[in-house]
Amino acid sequence: MDLSQIITSPSLTSLLPALTSTKSTCLSLLSTLSSLPPTTQTSPTADFDPTQPPPFPPDPTALAAKSSLHASLSHLRGLNRSTIHAIRETKSLTASAKVEVDTLHLHLQNLLYEQSHLVSSIRACEGYEHTYTSLPLVSREEFLSLHPELEAKLENGEGEVGEHEVTIARIEHEYREREGLEGRRQELLRRKAELVKDNKKRREDLASLDVDLERFVEAAGPIQRIFEKEY
Hints:
This protein is mainly α. The chain contains 7 helices and no strands. 77% of the residues lie in helices and 0% in strands.
């Protein structure tokens, strides 16, 4: 596979021509050196120093290729330094972007959790059987017939009158009705207590009257016997 298909970064693709040029210069220099006769500047018996480079043949073509190679290598080192700086900058930008992406991802996860919680709460509220659903409220039609002004607003869409407000008004109507009935019940209980008290007093009076009647009958016995005598 071609390197241009593998390397797509602009900072790296700029190195490919320099690498190709340096490679060509190296191959050209090696070809020139291989075509030259062996050098005789050093004798076979001379001391060999492995730390020193071998003597370079004084051939003009080889010297020109060497100078060109040094220039290509210098240019390649400069591009390599630029590429390293670009890679470090890219890594820094990538790290900053990663931190931002991680923060956004965490925020998204929090939003998704909050959304799930809200959806669950909404479903729980929608499925909650409120007490008012079991109340024996008057029908909607009967309630609106008792409040024509509310029915007119509902039909004309005036204000913020909707089914929710109608339901609240029906509940308040039921509350007022029950409150009035409770007042009547308390009044009837009060009257009942008064009647019970009055009946108890009457029974006590009748009981005492029985005793008085018995005494009266006993006291009237002699008088009655006198009237029953025959003269």
